[in-house]
Amino acid sequence: MAQTPFIIQEHQFQRMKAVIARLCVECAARVVFLVDRDGQTIAFHGEIGDMDMTSFSSLAAGNVAATSSMAKLIGEDTFPSVVHEGERESIFISVINRSLLVVVFDERSTLGLVKIRAKRASYEVAAILEEAVNDSRSFSLSKNSAFADISDDDIDSLFA
Amino acid sequence: MTFINYASREINCKIVYYGPGLCGKTTNLQHIYDSTAQEAKGKLISLATETDRTLFFDFMPLELGTVRGFKTRFHLYTVPGQVYYDASRKLILKGVDGVVFVADSQEERMDANVESLYNLEDNLATQGYDLMKLPYVLQLNKRDLPNVIPMEDLTYELQKKGEPVYEAVASDGTGVFDTLKAVAKQVLTELRKS
Fold first, then answer.
1. Can you name the CATH fold of B3-193?
2. What's this model's pTM, rounded to 2 decimal places?
3. Residue B192 and residue A38: Cβ atoms within 8 Å?
4. How far apart are CA A152 and CA B81, in angstroms?
């Protein structure tokens, strides 16, 4: 593994959930996701219904990865946001350093409202994520009994 | 990059299947998907061309079980193998925790295997990874075909650092899960060490 694992602690997770829950209400969104740029869902709030969150997060990350590369090819550093407008539902993705704030909204909201509210929320989320990244670097897994106690038998049992 | 969520008690890791075009990367994932219980897998997403060649990536989430109270989930990706999709391969490698290199055992595909392996090392280096330090498994696929290079010769040419080498016939599942288990074990062992 080349990099330190990205570790989200309970209190940071709860703070992030509170921010995206408030964003979901303020911009009348259907659902708000916070997704790692590698495609992992960090947190979400709203009406998931039967949406496949895991696939959605992975595709959102792939989408942003592709469009970011396109941006570089035309001389831009990145596209800080990506919008997909559908007939009934739309998606707004805001890039926040290593994460993506993804808002799915319908006719109950507007793109303008989502952009304004998401901008404010993104500052708050960025601060929490930066704290999590910094803590990850200094967080020693070996000091945590949950990982220190993992034995070869524990790993083998996953494949039994 | 492994993602650990203490609130939801989850460990999420990313494994990428790499190799030249038509070597069997997507076939590996397809077999894993078809053979896994419903509750342990998500959807298999394939972003492919009209002729079923991988265009961007295939993706499948897999839940292996619980270790010390943490759910272990692996996100399996394949890259497009055709040479001109290199930009996409670079993107898919971001955040990788473990790599499976799928080699095509056919004699006429040897150059493609070597080129793809160099490409893997280059693209990993671009992302700041060192193949020598990354969990890594070599799969020698298509062992059922008549014109295959002997195992010893293929291993000599392609093995990089004494990594586990598995024979496979991905089309019927032979060696597919052995390969996956090997790389997943390496990833979890690395996590424990770190």
1. Rossmann fold (3.40.50)
2. 0.88
3. no
4. 34
